[in-house]
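*** Fold description ***
***
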Amino acid sequence: MSVKKGLVTCLAIAAVCATFQQTVHADEVSGKQYTSSTVNQLVSSVKSASDETSLSGLVSSPLVVGATSISGNAVANAKVDVWVNGSLKATVYADAKGNFTVEVPALAKGQIVQLRSTLDDWSADSNRYEVVEKEPVVLTPLAVGETKVSGIAAPKSKVDVWVAGALKATVQADEGGIWVANVPALEVGNTVQVRASMGDWYADSARYEVTSKEPVVITALVADETRIGGVAVPNSKVDVWVGGLLMATAYADETGIWNADIPALVKNQYVQIRSSVGKWYADSTRYQVVDKTLDLLISLKAGGTKVAGVSAPGSTVNVWIDGAIEATVTTDETGIWVAKVPALTEGQVVQAKANIGGYWYAEGASVTVVK
């Protein structure tokens, strides 16, 4: 099928009836059969319209995976052919108001649906619609500061964008299901959810969580570790680079969490993460792999007020003195940590214990303070 250049989008009788009322009066538009000459006069007369009754046919039901019926609106009493991927799947006649519903084989993602309306010697092809997944999805990076959200939903559906439980934008998806909405600047921790609807039908997206733009590693980067994980922009592609080489690619879920298997890490290797969505990307800091054990970097002498050492980058370190926690700090990307403590006294026993997220633990040796 070819799309005709003279395709006119809408029958807006209320808006343009004055132009052609000698041909068709407003009260004759609905419920009476058109002739091809009448339709051709409408085609030549209507130049713009707010009414969504397209001469060439409009789909009004969700074109989503698994759908087995298609509803829409065309010229009253016109024959409507329904084509899926270039193959004629059904033929139906619109009623006196132009409405039609037809059964088709279950639709699959990526298929193209098009209508052809015919009345006597007149015919016109509709826009080409693309079948998408039932649930709408967000495709743009949901990172702090972003003011635009876009994605895919049922073609021609209404799309409501909710941020932190409040409706922030309403737009319409195009024939391919693409939609774009402007929203207030996103903040870390905001949840974003999208609802697509057509008439009584609706579908909700997953609940996405807004993250920082830069990805982070939240697992222990220690020697011999073969599993790495962290947080990145939701649904982004995550590339894991170790020692300057790409070692793994994973995808963050709707909350931004990702995990990947890598070759065993070696002490002093550098690890960096790149998160990307389309042409957008952001890189993490460069992390340095350390030993599994916690090492102290300074000697512990009486009168000292600092304890320092090395642990997994990003870990929480508790400094214990004589069985009580005297300081808690977080290591930097190289694993270095420094804690201020009450003045040490000779004979005290100091031990550092580290953890990440409550699932990784490491303990350093107990060290006695000397004079």
The helical segments are 13-20, 36-45. Residues 13-130 form a domain with the Immunoglobulin-like fold (CATH 2.60.40.10). The mean pLDDT is 86. The first helix runs from residue 13 to 20.
